[in-house]
Amino acid sequence: MAKMEIAPLRPWEDFFPGADRFTKPNLADLAKWNNRVVSNLLYYQTNYLAMAIVVFLIVGFLNPLGMILGGAVVSLVFMGSVWGAENKLMIKNFKKKNPTLFVLAVMGASYFLMSLFGGVMVFIFGITFPLLLVFAHASLRMRNIKNKLENKIEGAGLKKSPMGIILEALGQQEESFNQIQDFLESKLKE
C-alpha cells in the first residue's frame, strides 16, 4: 500500500503563469475536461487548499457561527454520501454510472440543508465560493508534462495524497492503469 504524501505547494509562476497557460475546456469532450480537472486537482491540491483556507477564514471571521454550521453540514452530508455509496447498492450503482451527478447531488443536499437553517449566504461564500474558484482554475489551467507525470504516479498507486483519496471516494478517477502504462512508455521512447 502506498504511503500518504502531501503534495508540495507549487510556485505562483506555475499555479498562475499567465493567460498563455489557460484555455477554455472543450465542452464537447466531457471526458477530456473531467481528466483535466482531476489532473489539476491532484497536482495543485496544496495550492487549492491554501486558497480555500484564506477565503474560509475571511468569511469565518465575518460570521463564525454560520461557518461552523456550514462546515458541519457539508462534512456530515459528505460522510453520509460516502457511507451510502459503500453500503447501499442503489447508491453505489448510481455513483458508478453517474459520478458527476453524484457529486452534484452531494452539493445540492448540502445546499438544501443549509437553506433549512437559514445560512445559505454563509454557505455560498464560505464553502461554495472556494470550491467554485478551485473548479474554475482546474477547468481552465492547461496541464504540463510535470503535472501529467505526477498524476500518473499517483494513479498507478505508487503514492497517495489527500486529494486522491477524496476523488477516489467520489468516484472521480483520472484514467485506467493501461493508459498510464501507455503514457509512461511513450515518454520513455522520446
TrEMBL record:
The chain crosses the membrane at residues 41-62, 68-86, 98-114, 120-140. One of its GO terms (cellular component) is endoplasmic reticulum membrane. The keyword Cell division does not apply. Keywords: Acetylation, Cell membrane, Cytoplasm, Cytoskeleton, Endoplasmic reticulum, Membrane, Transmembrane, Transmembrane helix. It is found in: Cell membrane; Cytoplasm, Cytoskeleton; Endoplasmic reticulum membrane; Membrane. Belongs to the PRA1 family. This is PRA1 family protein.
